Amino acid sequence: MRMNQVQRSLKPPRPKSDLSSIESLIKAMLKKHRSPLMLIRRCVLEKQYQRFRKCLPEVMPYYAIKANPHQGVIKTFIKLGASFDVASANEMKHVLHLGASPSKIIFANTIKSREDIESARRRRVRLMTFDSEPELYKIAKHYPKAKVLVRIKVANEGSVVELSLKFGSDSDQAFFLLHKAKTLGLVPAGISFHVGSQSKNVENYMQALEISANIFKEAKKNGIRLKIMDIGGGFPIQHFDNEIGVNFERMASQIRKQIKTLFDRDVRFIAEPGRFLVGPAGVLVTQVIGRTFRNNKNYYYLNDGIYADFSGMVFDHCKYEFKTLRRGLRYLSALAGPTCDSFDTMSLNTEIPELYLGDVIYVKNIGAYSSASACPNFNGFPPAKIILV
Ligand SMILES: Cc1ncc(COP(=O)(O)O)c(C=O)c1O
């Protein structure tokens, strides 16, 4: 008997499954804080960053802070050595204030106000994108000698968020625009593209790289040596536990091969991942504040909704997996937010166990394009408190 006890105590503890460790974390956090809570797991931010570096070692990630500009997220990436993609002077000031270096920032919005370009000049953020001739005149006037990347329009086939509807020059205009940049006293540094967000289709990257490599060749033949290839964001994540078709490792290895085949050795590669770096780190914790039975199903009203941390369901076209801490028989249920608006409904057909007031509904993989686009106080309901854990 004694012997058995000793042997048992020598066994290493069984590793906790991700689910049970998330659920323990939620219970612990709810003892200290009121919901709604957006928990951002630092270890997952680190893991995603290292995954990116390992799979695409030649490509420097510039974290697109629009996905989640929380200062804890940015500080974590600064410590890891990341660079940053900003969309406005305000985002630029934010990352600089938190300690990022101006040389590690790209101003990756093809349309910039005069004031924002001047702000970039004052802060020595020299690298920026553009996709039209009028933008070049504006940049040349307000930031002479800026380093510019022409953003080209590429296929966004199958991507959840289409970005080529609004951005990107036709690729046959790219060389003309780079040449124009040079004549205006700017430094034509390279090319950028974006295949659309949550792009599971690696062909988008393959084709975009091929088109870009041809522009690099055309520029070289005509005396312009381009140095930077920006492959944008779009790298996909899993939103559901059993989702298939998302394989970053396989995608990255194909992109890497294409880079090696098509470009000269001295070309510098950068990317602008947002969702991939921060999405998997986020866990949104909400609680049931009201319930009823209507339209033949359970209706649960939560203390967070479409106008706040579920805003990604509208702006990011995102679908989420709703989880509960209860187990057992599942019933067809509807989930709605707290505001006085029927639009504030997250699901009309989720299958979950019966819930009671105060019960938790949580969502994993919701760190990107969620709190970032939440209304600050619609109907007086504040968005989730963000906590780095
Ligand atoms: C210019 C630019 N770069 C990067 C990103 C980040 O994209 P993702 O989150 O899909 O990686 C976006 C997203 O809209 C973007 O517009």
Question: How does this structure look, described?
Answer:
The protein has twelve helices and 16 strands. 33% of the residues lie in helices and 21% in strands. It starts with a helix and ends with a strand. Strands 1, 10, 11, 12, 13, 14, 15 and 16 form an eight-stranded mixed sheet that branches. The protein has helices spanning 2-10, 18-32, 42-55, 71-80, 89-97, 114-122, 133-142, 174-183, 202-221, 248-262, 275-278, 312-315, and strands spanning 37-40, 59-64, 83-86, 105-107, 127-130, 147-151, 187-192, 228-230, 268-271, 282-294, 297-302, 322-324, 331-336, 345-352, 360-363, 385-388. The protein is α/β, with parallel strands linked by helices and 389 residues long. The chain has two domains: 18-39 and 281-388, Lyase, Ornithine Decarboxylase, Chain A, domain 1 (Beta Barrel); 43-279, Alanine racemase (TIM Barrel, Alpha-Beta Barrel). The structure holds pyridoxal-5'-phosphate (PLP). Residues 64, 67, 85, 108, 163, 194, 197, 232-235, 272-276 line the site of pyridoxal-5'-phosphate.
